[in-house]
Amino acid sequence: MNADLNRLRPRMMSVAYRMLGSVVDAEDAVQDAFLRLHTADDVASPEGFLVTATTRRCIDKLRTTRRRKEYIGPWVPEPVDTKSGAHDGILAESLTQAFLLMLERLSPDERAAFLLRTVFDYDFARIAEVVGKSEANVRQIVSRAKTRLANDKPRFHSESQEADGLAERFIAACRAGEVSQIEHMFADDAEVLSDGGGKVSAARVVIRGRSRAARFMAGVFSKRRQHDEMHSTTVNGEPGVVFVSGGDVIHVVSLRIENGVKAVYMTLNPDKLARWSVAEID
Q1: Residue 191, beta-bridge partner list
Q2: How far apart are CA 28 and CA 22, in angstroms?
Q3: Parallel, antiparallel, or unpaired: how do β-strands 229-235 and 238-245 relate?
Q4: Which residues are registered as beta bridge partners of 239?
């Protein structure tokens, strides 16, 4: 029985991480759901119980969090090391930091219903049971969420091989400090989000525009290459770089390739790097 239940843990983590954008919080939510299951009586469907308990715990967490008001500087979802990557198109796209940031526009109930329907393919009746609302209400919630996110959906997302090639050239230009080359590879509406959480030095505002973003990236890599090791990697299914100092991961960068480099997500907050290479999220 325990072995069967443990096979459900990755699924619960996938739901919780997309809901919360935090590995640590997702692990807490999933662990809480499993503890509730072990103390519950007459559970007909352990999977159904866990999905419901995990989702509701995430909704409660989102309702009580005040990270938008209290967080210092731009907030970036906690990055995860995705060496193997997600194979399913929808599942892979929903893991990207751009998608997770897009979800920040939704209320907790909207986020839960939208994810369960569009990413995990639950039917409306099941979602209604999970979130404790009528099926008709859930249909309205999902429709409202889709409308709110309509303008944020990617217009063009490069194929993996094309994205990797551009990312390699972009990173090489950053390392060389070639500002003009970096700028040429940025999209017109490029932006850089640098998340230090007030714990380490980082830009307190979003860097917008090709020229400003290019100069900023050249400066960041110039400082890093003097003292830190740098390795290419895959962050939330997209090309990225990890900086290591003294054996510790201190900086993770991921690139959104969409008609050029559309966005750069930089995580420096040490609280968000503790589970970097440990968490397994599909």
Answers
A1: 208, 263
A2: 10
A3: antiparallel
A4: 234
For 95-124, the pLDDT digits (tens) are: 999 999 999 999 999 999 999 999 999 999
Give dist(CA 40, CA 54) in Å, integer: 14
Q: In 10 A of CB 61, how many CB atoms?
A: 19
What distance in Å separates the CA atoms of residue 239 and residue 227, rounded to the nearest whole number?
22
Residue type, 19: M
pLDDT tens digits along 30-85: 999 999 998 888 888 999 999 999 999 999 999 987 656 688 999 999 999 987 55
Residue 66: strand, helix, or coil? coil
Task: Give the whole-angstrom CA distance, residue 57 versus residue 231.
Answer: 36
Task: Give the separation between CA 110 and CA 117, rounded to whole angstroms.
Answer: 11
Neighbours of 110 (CB within 10 A): 19
User: Phi/psi of residue 44, each to 5°?
Assistant: -75, -40
The Cα–Cα gap between 115 and 59 comes to 12
Place of tokens 């500087």: 73
